[in-house]
Structures are given as structure tokens and as C-alpha cells.
Specification:
With 253 residues, the protein is mainly beta. It contains 2 helices and 21 strands.
């Protein structure tokens, strides 16, 4: 009488039974299914090649996002495809549109690759998101050509992360929050417009940021370096009632 294996329920014919080719064929199908699931689980933790995801306000989140004609509808959906280990370039290309979304890049543990979230190639009013949070991301991140709409959060909050390059970001919505806020993280802020904020560019807790050719008016503070943080600057800078403030070991160079 045949028996079955305890883990994968593979059939084991008894020695008395006539050999049936259907038995090993069935067993091979079961093994193949198990190996496929294991492979999917491993690939879900790490990139296996460079990949670009496309987002369009007229797309569908049931698409695969891999071409302009099969674009995702939401940026959040594209972000959900990023694994914990990034050893390649992962790019999210965002078409024009008003995306009422908070983009939350969280918990990328490391790797040798880069995450790129790309809208326009210049300052824009056509690629709009609510705000962006980059938290505990241990690979470089490039954010480019997006406008923030939220009055209830920092436009961009970067915390405990390796390096974020913020390029052509625009936040002019009147708010008691900051335009860009770095906490225990490093980065570059380039050609951004930050107006009508508590602070245009705020750094704290050992953050290290290079501010280059940025603009903005109507802020309470232009640049703030607090608690051993440093801001290096070149070119134009956003201004406020107080243009620069440094305290508790912070410095603006």
C-alpha cells in the first residue's frame, strides 16, 4: 500500500505496487510548485535586476507597472514593489497628475543600488503629491520634480537614512510645518523652492545636508541647523523672517 511523505505529501508507492509513471510526474509537479514559491519569496526580499515602474493617474494598480501602457495608478503601489534589499537601480517614473498620496519609503535595509522617484526635470506645478517620508532607508534615494500640497506635514521628511538627493522639489503651501526636514540623515537639496513654511530647510540631530541654489520666501526661518547638525550652502538660499539659525552645536557653513 502506498504512503505519503510528511512534509510535501509526495506519494511513495509500496514495493509491491506496479510502477506508475503518473506518480513521479505528480510528485515533480508538487516539488516544482514548492520551489517556485521559495524562489518568489527570495526575490521578494531583494532586487534581481534594474527595474522601472511607471505611474499614471489614468493607470490601474492591477497592471504590472512595467511600461507606460501598463502603468500603475498610484505611486504608493509602485513603492510597494521595492524590496528590502536594493542591489540595482529601482526607478519610479511619474506622469503629470495630482496624486493625493503620502509617499512613504520605509525600511530598505541596504544594498548597492539606488531608488529614484522621478517627476519633472524642473520645478513643476504638474506633478503633485501630498508629501514624502523617507525613514530608515539605507540606500541612496533621488527625489526629483515633485510639488507638495499638504499643509499638515513637512513637505519632505528624511529620518535615519543614508542619503537623499532632493532635486526640483516645490513646497509653497502655507503651513506651520517645514518645507524639508532632515533628522539624523544626510543629503543634498538642490534647486528647490520652499516658501510660506515654519522653516524652509530644517536639520536636526546630527543631520548633514548640502543646500545648493534653492529659493523661497515667506518663511519664519530660511535655514535651521540644530543639535549638532550641519548645513553647507552654495548659491541662493530660501529666506525668512530669520534667514539662518544655528543652535545646540549646529552649524551653517
Amino acid at each position: 500500500m502506498s504512503t505519503n511523505t510528511p512534509n510535501f505529501n509526495l506519494e511513495k508507492p509500496s514495493v509491491e505496487e506496479f510502477y506508475d509513471v503518473g506518480v513521479p510526474n505528480s510528485n515533480m509537479d508538487k516539488i516544482d510548485n514548492v520551489l517556485k514559491k521559495l524562489s518568489d519569496d527570495v526575490h521578494g526580499l531583494s532586487t534581481i535586476a534594474d527595474v522601472t515602474y511607471y505611474v499614471n493617474a489614468n493607470g490601474k494598480d492591477t497592471n504590472n507597472g512595467l511600461t507606460t501602457t501598463t502603468a500603475f495608478k498610484s505611486i504608493v503601489k509602485a513603492i510597494s514593489k521595492i524590496p528590502q534589499i536594493v542591489n540595482h537601480n529601482v526607478t519610479i517614473n511619474i506622469a503629470e497628475g495630482n496624486y493625493n498620496e503620502t509617499l512613504n519609503l520605509y525600511g530598505i535595509l541596504g544594498g548597492s543600488g539606488t531608488v529614484n522617484v522621478l517627476g519633472s526635470t524642473t520645478l513643476t506645478d504638474t506633478h503633485i503629491v501630498s508629501n514624502i517620508i523617507v525613514n530608515r532607508v539605507q540606500v541612496p534615494v533621488v527625489l526629483r520634480g515633485l510639488k507638495f500640497s499638504s499643509a499638515n506635514s513637512h513637505g519632505l521628511l528624511v529620518s535615519y537614512s543614508t542619503f537623499v538627493s532632493a532635486q526640483y522639489l516645490k513646497d509653497v503651501t502655507p503651513s506651520t510645518f517645514d518645507g524639508i526636514h532632515f533628522l539624523a540623515a544626510s543629503g543634498r537639496v538642490y534647486s528647490c523652492e520652499l516658501s510660506n513654511k515654519a522653516t524652509a530647510l530644517h536639520t536636526e540631530t546630527c543631520a548633514n545636508v548640502y543646500s545648493e541654489t534653492n529659493t523661497g520666501t515667506g518663511n519664519s526661518f530660511g535655514l535651521v541647523a540644530y543639535n549638532s547638525s550641519k548645513i553647507g550652502k552654495a548659491g541662493t538660499q530660501p529666506v525668512g523672517i530669520t534667514n539662518e539659525s544655528k543652535s545646540s552645536g549646529g552649524d551653517i557653513l
